[in-house]
């Protein structure tokens, strides 16, 4: 019975969902504006946000940086299959190369799938040369992103 109550508490209602959507669009939205958007008072919205943070639904507020404005005009997806006994070394190498901005450890033929930003194509081979000492790679240049990271509610 207690587990069922706990599960029910974690379900978002329409107001929670609306608040999260607003913050996902702009994490700096003032509480007064959030309150207007959901038809509540600012103190009530503050309490909801506090509850969402304490329950772990909201785990942080982030800044989104545009890589193109910083000069990173290319994005690549690199699939990696580590060479025998090189898994930990490969993971450490990926973490040490700042152009790798995201990496997932996955099941299947590959062990890692990573997102890499480059200022130009000439940066790709030196990075892949480092990785190829520890893994077989398969790389694809991203042409566009029809579905950007989106809210899961």
UniProtKB/TrEMBL annotation:
A Pfam family hit: HTH_24
SMART domains for this protein: HTH_ASNC
GO biological process: regulation of DNA-templated transcription; response to amino acid
GO cellular component, one term: cytosol
SUPFAM superfamilies in UniProt: Dimeric alpha+beta barrel, Winged helix' DNA-binding domain
GO molecular function, one term: sequence-specific DNA binding
Lineage: superkingdom: Bacteria
Record-annotated HTH asnC-type domain positions: 12-73
Keyword terms, alphabetized: DNA-binding, Transcription, Transcription regulation
InterPro entries linked to this entry: ArsR-like_HTH, AsnC-type_HTH_dom, Dimeric_a/b-barrel, Tscrpt_reg_AsnC-like, Tscrpt_reg_AsnC/Lrp_C, Tscrpt_reg_HTH_AsnC-type_CS, WH-like_DNA-bd_sf, WH_DNA-bd_sf
Descriptive protein name: HTH-type transcriptional regulator LrpC
Species of the source: Marinomonas spartinae
